[in-house]
Design a protein that fits this description.
The protein is mainly beta. It is built from 1 helix and 11 strands. It has an 8-stranded antiparallel barrel. The longest helix is centred in the N-terminal third of the chain and has 27 residues. The radius of gyration is 21 Å and the shape is elongated. The relative contact order is 0.20.
């Protein structure tokens, strides 16, 4: 809930700050100059192979800890909104983004959930064709819920004797790069890759790796 409130506040602040900038730019710049160009937003699905450092799981029934490592294919969903400033060919975009990602790992049915979001800035080059490359950085925060179940099942209401949960928050930094493919004047396909970093205290079960995203964007960009 805190992350959703933070993203909502960031989006509203960006919208309110852009209204006077758009008015000023329209008065003082022509269509080829540096000014507010509009906004873009949409949803994305992602997948990728991620892994954590090996960590130890302790049990009351055994004096010997078990070494576990999170590794596997992560899947999830997210989205963003970006406000563009610049010329028709070169744009700086500022906005907000949030994602939710899950990975299952051994011992099954253990799984880890990571949610993160924050503000972003990127650079987009609008070429003469339909393919437009971009690169940028997200800075924000998130949380991890790691459910470890060494015996039992998640399909019943029975208390498991060999289970644990590790939950914590972190500061997030995620560099990214990708392309946007113009389908129509107001619709684009986005393909991007990023790498999520935990910039606060080290957590052995924090899983990271290359995630690949694909989604549809709705554009309200001026030429």
């Amino acid at each position: 809930m805190k992350m959703r409130a933070l993203l909502t506040a960031a989006v509203m602040a960006a919208i309110l700050s852009i209204i006077p900038l758009n008015t000023l730019a329209s008065d003082k710049a022509d269509s080829s100059g540096f000014r507010f160009r509009g906004y873009t937003g949409g949803m994305m699905l992602h997948s990728g192979y991620i892994q954590s450092c090996p960590f130890q799981l302790y049990s009351y029934s055994s004096a010997t800890p078990v070494t576990i490592q999170i590794k596997g294919g992560a899947t999830g969903i997210g989205g963003h909104v970006k406000f563009a400033f610049g010329t028709p060919t070169d744009m700086i975009r500022i906005g907000a983004e949030g994602h939710s990602s899950n990975v299952s790992y051994r011992p099954s049915p253990s799984y880890s959930h990571t949610g993160w979001g924050g503000v972003l800035i990127d650079y987009l080059h609008r070429s003469k064709g339909r393919v437009h490359p971009f690169a940028g950085l997200l800075i924000g925060g998130g949380g991890v819920k790691n459910h470890i179940i060494t015996e039992g099942s998640t399909e019943d209401f029975l208390t498991e004797r060999q289970a644990a949960m590790h939950k914590y928050a972190f500061m997030a930094v995620a560099p990214f790069a990708g392309i946007e493919v113009s389908l129509t004047q107001k619709l684009s396909l986005v393909i991007k890759a990023d790498w999520l970093f935990n910039t606060t205290r080290h957590q052995s079960d924090f899983s990271s790796g290359l995630r690949l995203y694909v989604g549809i964007l709705f554009n309200r960009l001026q030429p």
